[in-house]
Amino acid sequence: MQHDRIVYDIDSTLERPLKIIIPRFKEMPEEYAFLRDTADRAIQKIKQFESFKSSYGYCHYDLLPKNFHFDEGNLITFFDFDWLGKGFLANDLMTFYIQLFFLVYHKIITQEEADRSFMVLVDGYREQRNLSEEELEAIPWLGVMFWIFGLGFYEENFDDFSNTFLTPKFIRDRIAMIKKWVDSYCNTRFTAAG
Questions:
Q1: Which of 28, 85, 108, 120 is in Cβ range 3.0-4.6 Å of 103 for a Cys bridge?
Q2: Distances, alpha carbon 39 to alpha carbons 44, 54, 83, 146, 150, in Å
Q3: Does residue 163 sit within a domain?
Q4: DSSP codes, 152-175
Q5: 3-class SS at 178?
Q6: For 123-141, how does the pLDDT look when each residue is reduced to its tens digit (9 = 90+)?
Q7: What CATH number is given to the structural domain containing 66?
Q8: Measured between alpha carbons, how far is 59 from 8 in angstroms, rounded to an integer?
Q9: What sign does the CA torsion over 176, 182, 141, 9 have?
Q10: What is the DSSP letter of 55?
């Protein structure tokens, strides 16, 4: 890469964002305590995943359906590289699964449909590179890192997002989503079948 890119690690996705967003939680200490506790759990879990640390490189970090397109010949084109950076390659699977989670959370698809769609991605992914079960188990915790990173990103770019994000309602709604994510995926064994 010709330009420096972010490194998605514990500091950039958890520690730094949690420091940046503290002022937003002055009236919401319980919500902040939840984020801090969840981040601490994520740190411990990520440190346990030894075998997938070699699966590291550039990741898109925003692999949503709107950011890729298949043409008539089934060739894929990727878009929106704003968050491209270095990190665990499983981050791309995680961001795709978060999109599926949004659809389930808003009752647009069922959990079964989300799991089936995710398996299609995992199967195709495994045709290109090895993907360990440990990498899959890390996805919920990488998701925690993504959620908290996002809150920090909105705070750092407050002038750009002030009209839409970081209102008390947005923060409470986002915390509710994160709690649902943690309850659904972090408190159980996560596999490619969901």
A1: 108
A2: 9, 22, 21, 11, 13
A3: yes
A4: HHHHHTHHHHTTTS--HHHHHHHH
A5: helix
A6: 988 998 888 888 888 999 9
A7: 3.90.1200.10
A8: 9
A9: positive
A10: S
